Amino acid sequence: MRFLTLLSGLAFATSIAAQTSTGQACSAIPVSRFESCICPYGTDYLYSATYAILGVNAKVFNTYTSSFYDLGWQGVTNLTRSGPDKTVGSSRIFTAPTSVGTLTFSEKLDSFQTLSDGSYISRFSQFKVPVEYTIGKGSFSGYWITFEAQYAAEYETALTWTIYGCSTGFPFNFGKAHIKTLNDLLVVLDKAGLVKGNTTGPYIVQNF
Questions:
Q1: Which of 46, 91, 130, 190 could be 139's S-S partner, Cβ–Cβ 3.0 to 4.6 Å?
Q2: pTM of the predicted model, to two decimals?
Q3: How do residues 55-78 score in pLDDT, each as one tens digit?
Q4: Is the dihedral of CA 136, 127, 29, 164 positive or negative?
């Protein structure tokens, strides 16, 4: 049943990624929706979704991943923070390597909700846009991310990690990075004896 749910999510994401534009500017689309929207001139619409069922208890996964600031598990250590952790309106600034240079990104937390079983959903977005490329011409001109971890069983957590946004071309492969991040995290958790269930995926759906 959980595997069928995962497949249904993949099918839904594929249909969304193939949709035509809603006719709305991307900045006007709520962060809970993932539909093709109109990007600023000179940028392209991007969509990426990563799905997985991880063999880890949801509370354990929450402990390791839910902080808005502690991103060592994603390989981000050079981070500047503003505001309390897991609080709407808080922001972070960090640098990240891309094919168009090492760029500085600013993100703000749009919403955060957690449940007693360890499930949580975090939505955040880029601000201070555009971020101009340092190699070649172009920019990142806004992106919106949802990270949702749901209790699936005692030792299983269902994950959906989605992003849509606007960039000139596609200088960063979000799906590839997310898969590597999750696989690396599973190695760490396994060494700590915390992987006690079955893992399915991760799988990605992208429009690029």
A1: 130
A2: 0.86
A3: 999 999 999 999 999 999 999 988
A4: positive
